[in-house]
Amino acid sequence: MSFRILEQTLLFDANRIFVDGDRPLLVDAGTGFKVEDAIAELKDLLDGRDLERIVLTHRHFDHVGGAKRIADEFSSELLMAPADAEVLRQGDSEATLGTDFGGRIEPMEVTDLAEGELLSTGGHELRVIYSPGHSAGSICLYEDSSATLVSGDTVFVGGIGRYDMPSASRDDLEGSLRKLSALEVNALYPGHGPEAKSGGGKHIINGLRMLEGYL
Ligand SMILES: [Zn+2]
Questions:
Q1: What does the alpha-carbon distance between residue 155 and residue 161 come to, in Å, rounded to a whole number?
Q2: Is the pTM higher than 0.85?
Q3: Ligand 1 being an ion, which residues bring their Cβ within 5 A of it?
Q4: How far, in Å, is the centroid of ligand 1 from the Cα of 198?
Q5: 102: domain range?
Q6: How far is the CA of 80 from the centre of ligand 1 (A)?
Q7: What is the CATH number of the domain that holds 200?
Q8: What is the pLDDT of residues 52-80, one digit of tens each?
């Protein structure tokens, strides 16, 4: 069983993270600019299993641009927090930053994820943690047993998410980082850049210090 960051096709693409199990799931879909490559890679990894669910950490195009195409291919359900789901349902290319990336968002069906909801892959148990700040509907996924955090654009290895875009909030981001800092975090799988295999919690603490101006 594993968490695995799939190969990036474009530098600014978000990480797509494959969470293995009998019922594997994908976290984030990338821009979709090279979506056929992504689909081929997923078919290899799935090896005959279904991809029932794709979890989207937040509304931004570099994470959701490929979501509809991948979901259509695998008959997957798209899941995200309601505060960001609405702009995907509307196909809002402005609010998702699609226009900034030179792409478009088509309206799509999205199922709301609740705070604390558990997602099981048969190999991993992931709990939904709302972490607004980078966007209103940003989420993280946390596995208690392995102390693994999938953090979207809330916190990176060596940084934190921007909070100067539509629906972002510095105060909310600070609150979210405080909330995450209460967790034991060993492995950290962020929305961009490399993962930390251990000691992930220090990136949350450092992120808080950055926000408070100490770093
Ligand atoms: Zn983002």
A1: 6
A2: yes
A3: 60, 153
A4: 24
A5: 3-212
A6: 14
A7: 3.60.15.10
A8: 999 999 999 999 999 999 999 999 999 99
